[in-house]
Amino acid sequence: RPLKKEADYVRFQGSLAKVRTRLPVEQQKRFMGRIAGIQDSVLQLQLEDGRIVAIPLSNIDKARLEPEF
Fold first, then answer.
1. Mean pLDDT, to the nearest integer, of 54-69?
2. What are residue 38's phi and psi, to 5 degrees?
3. Residue 35, CB-side half-sphere exposure with 13 Å CA sphere
4. 31: three-class secondary structure by DSSP
5. Is residue 42 scored above 90 in pLDDT?
6. What is the rounded average pLDDT of the residues 41-69?
7. Residue range 8-31: average pLDDT?
8. Which residues in 4-43 are b (16+ Cβ under 10 Å) and which e?
9. Which helix (H) or strand (E) element contains residue 66?
10. Cβ atoms 51, 5 nearer than 8 A
11. How sure is the predictor about 47, in pLDDT bands with cuts at 50, 70 and 90?
């Protein structure tokens, strides 16, 4: 399921998501992690190694939920 609006990120907080950015954030463009929250149009994504990355919504090229079984 694609994530488009800010409300989508709020609704699926705690879910696993795959995010691709337009410009690199911390020398990376592809991220996979849990949605930790969103504030002031900045997505907080918790990666598998425990780091939290702040990605502005304006920099997100594509974001979708990853299915969990």
1. 95
2. -145, 135
3. 25
4. strand
5. yes
6. 95
7. 96
8. eeeebbeebeeeebebebeeebeeeeebebbbbebeeeeb
9. none
10. no
11. very high
Is the Cβ–Cβ distance between 3 and 12 less than 8 Å?
A: yes
Residue type at 38 in one-letter notation: I
Cα end-to-end span (Å), the chain: 15
Q: How far is CA 66 from the centre of its chain?
A: 11
The residue among 6, 28, 32 whose CA lies nearest residue 18 is 32
Identity of residue 23? L
8 A C-beta contact, residue 43 and residue 19? yes
Order of strands, sheet of 52-56, starting from the edge strand that comes earlier in the sequence: 52-56, 42-47, 28-39, 16-25, 60-65
